[in-house]
Amino acid sequence: MGTAEDVADYLQEWFEAGAADSFVIVADRLSDALSDFVNQVIPVLQERGLRPENYMGNTLREYMNLDYQLGVDPRILNESDQIR
């Protein structure tokens, strides 16, 4: 796909255009693509301020800076009430 900068440019373009707020990176298990992405592309994104350099917190919810929630999301409860 190109250099680490090329990949970062592509992801940044989509992110800044509002076309995506996250990405799923999939690599086949026989290649070094995932480690290459982590070791080469992530640092470029961090330099550009698009990824945090350090993750704070102990849970995925804390890493993603999401509000704490107990129980089932109320939107799910409301939808199930309407399906009768």
Descriptive overview:
- The radius of gyration is 18 Å and the shape is elongated.
- It has four helices and no strands.
- The N and C termini lie far apart (49 Å).
- It has one domain (4-82).
- α1 crosses α2 (33-47).
- It is an all-alpha fold.
Give a short overview.
The protein has helices at residues 4-16, 33-47, 60-63, 74-82.
The biggest sheet, with number of strands, parallel, antiparallel or mixed sense and barrel status, is:
none
The number of distinct β-strands equals 0
Beta-strand residue percentage: under 5%
Number of domains: 1
- Total helix count? 4
Provide the structure class. Answer: mainly alpha
Question: How would you summarize the topology of this molecule?
Answer:
Blueprint: H1 4-16, H2 33-47, H3 60-63, H4 74-82
Helix pairs in contact: 1-2
Key structural traits:
elongated, 84 residues, mainly alpha
